[in-house]
Specification:
alpha+beta, Rossmann fold, seven-stranded antiparallel beta sheet, six-stranded antiparallel beta sheet, 39% helix
Length: 580
């Protein structure tokens, strides 16, 4: 939970304008007044959570302190206990005893450093030239005099919903690497990144031994949660594997969580969740985020700007929507609860639906990073440049420029490359309000899961058995896959999966284009309709016309992101520079 910004100061170097701009940005987002830590080298503004107002800042003698952002889990407790644990660790790495997704700032014995969790799930941004670090991308951008839109980042955001790797939309701002340590020293910021341990081989353990190890790792996480929060836990329930597994593990540890499902009554996820809750006798909140009072076009500009601030500029769905998610973020952690997110649960399944063989990086990109139609792009877009840009990011993450990836490495990239960008961004925003949890994206769990043999994961069999072992009653209910998790997946499921497994990557790259051959003949529906676009963007398409032909777009999600990016650039006005 919470947030911060840190600005390095030097004698005769007035940083008051940057400080004022960032403090104003945090106030706009909705944070209350910060606790200020002032030293001769920097000023730190530490903010409490928006909904949970507690501040995980502990001061010690000689100006030392510990501040924790996000959710830092220790077997003995969360955040409050962890502060002293962190401060008293001298030689032993904190990662041996801590879980969760967080950033810690520790000043001890004259040294100040910012350390990030080992999965990289809590996103922290920095600008080296101005020596600024912050949990808010918007706040850093507000303090800089120039922002250069990166062509690669713009296309990645529109096509995929996120910017991958350690880049952001703007050249001047970077995302701190996975497990990074940022030291504030005499020369400015020093960003050190660890060499990651990449999974390249399958586990030598048997399936039975691996299942026991999976259970032990999940037990460790859920036990720590139960010790601190008891029943003050919120989680979604749908018709799939991941939320069912989370609920099973909570019940295994005696937690009776607040359960909810998103969607409308006619959706399969909702009807299945209702059936489970009714049969098991626990309350279920059914929340349709689309069933909100309609917003008038003349009021829509206010809503878009609220979304802009809440999403820290723009998220995967864009900002041209209602603002239901803002109230939901607060509701999920109300009463000092912890909100669980099942993102990344596919680590126990064959997420990429690829066969058990080696793949080149390009084949992986063809399979999952080819959601674009070149015909909607101007001549600025170069398909080869786009793929090479992603290949460079994957090579940087792996630490090698290997031509072929083993299948376990492909599984490792699912969480380290894809989930870190997608789920990390979502969780970082939600953690502004209070405590959050992504149990499947704990580094110890993801590395274990990426080494599991693919034959065990296929058709969801491995995750289904974890559900059975944790809570046999929950496994008996049907799912959106047309079968329950109490028995091996049926032949119909296996045949359906192999229809995708056997589709080669070179063919998959064309799937998106075939699904979006032509755009709508009339105007777009909902909040993408022309009156809403004009309300939020009176001077629509000044920047994006350099990249896209809007009259050729056939995908509502991509249109929403294009309009959102246009809005972002308008907000920063004359500070924007185009790389192209």
């Amino acid at each position: 939970m919470s947030g911060f910004f840190l600005i390095r100061i030097q004698p005769n170097n007035d940083r008051s304008l940057e400080f004022k701009a960032m403090k104003q940005a945090f106030a706009e987002i909705g944070f209350s007044a910060p606790d200020i830590v002032q030293t001769s080298d920097y000023v730190l503004a530490a903010y409490p959570g928006i909904e949970n107002k507690s501040l995980a800042l502990e001061r010690y003698g000689a100006g030392d302190f510990v501040f924790i952002c996000g959710t830092c889990i220790h077997e003995g407790g969360i955040n409050v206990i962890s502060k002293d644990v962190l401060y008293n660790i001298k030689d032993k790495p904190a990662t041996d005893t801590l879980m969760g997704h967080y950033a810690t700032i520790i000043k001890r014995s004259g040294e100040t450093k910012i350390a990030l969790d080992q999965f990289g799930g809590y996103h922290v941004f920095y600008n080296l030239a101005n020596a600024i670090v912050s949990t808010s991308f918007y706040a850093i951008c507000s303090a800089l005099n120039q922002l250069t839109l990166l062509k690669q980042s713009a296309f990645e955001y529109v096509f995929n919903g996120v910017v991958s790797g350690n880049d952001t939309l703007f050249d001047e701002v970077s995302l701190a690497p996975i497990g990074a340590t940022i030291r504030i020293g005499p020369a400015g910021l020093d960003v050190a990144r660890p060499k990651l341990r990449v999974t390249r081989k399958y586990t030598p353990l048997s399936r039975a031994e691996s299942l026991e190890q999976s259970m032990a790792l999940l037990d460790r996480y859920f036990h720590a949660t139960a010790q601190v929060f008891g029943d003050r836990v919120g989680c979604a329930l749908s018709g799939g594997y991941d939320s069912r597994l989370m609920l099973a593990w909570m019940r295994r540890h005696g937690i009776q969580p607040r359960v909810f499902v998103y969607g409308h009554a006619a959706e399969a996820d909702v009807s299945l969740a209702i059936a489970i809750a009714r049969s098991e006798g626990f309350p279920l909140a059914v929340i349709d985020k689309n069933h909100q009072p309609p917003i008038r076009p003349e009021d829509f500009a206010v809503t878009v700007h609220r979304n802009f601030l809440a999403q820290d500029v723009c998220g995967w769905a864009g900002i041209f929507q209602n603002n239901a998610e803002i109230s939901e973020s607060a509701r999920r952690v109300h009463g000092n609860a912890i909100a669980f997110n099942g993102g990344g649960g596919e680590i126990f399944r064959n997420f990429f639906y690829l066969l058990d063989r080696q793949f080149s990086v390009r084949e992986l990109l063809w399979s999952f990073y080819s959601r674009f139609n070149p015909l909607i792009c101007t001549q600025v877009f170069d398909r080869e440049d786009y793929y090479q840009g992603l290949e460079r990011k994957i090579a940087d993450l792996l630490g090698t420029d290997e031509s072929l990836l083993t299948r376990p490495t492909v599984e490792w990239l699912y969480h380290s490359f894809r989930c870190r960008a997608w789920d990390g961004a979502v969780d970082s925003l939600c953690s502004r309000y209070g405590f959050t949890a992504m149990p499947y994206l704990e580094r110890s769990i993801t590395e274990h899961a990426s080494a599991l043999r693919l034959s065990w994961k296929n058709h969801g069999a491995y995750e289904a058995e974890l559900i059975r072992r944790a809570d046999h009653r929950l496994a008996r209910y049907s799912s959106v896959y047309g079968h329950n998790f109490d028995s091996p997946p049926p032949l119909s499921r296996r045949f359906a999966d192999y229809a995708t497994y056997l589709r080669p990557p070179w063919l998959r790259r064309h799937t998106y284009r075939l699904r979006h051959l032509s755009r709508r003949a009339d105007d777009w529906p909902g909040y993408l309709a022309r009156p809403y676009r004009k309300a939020a963007l009176p001077a629509e398409n000044l920047y994006m016309r350099h990249l896209f032909y809007l009259d050729r777009i056939a995908d509502a999600e991509q249109l929403a992101r294009i309009l959102s990016l246009e809005y972002v650039l308008h907000q920063f006005g004359d500070r924007i520079r185009l790389q192209f």
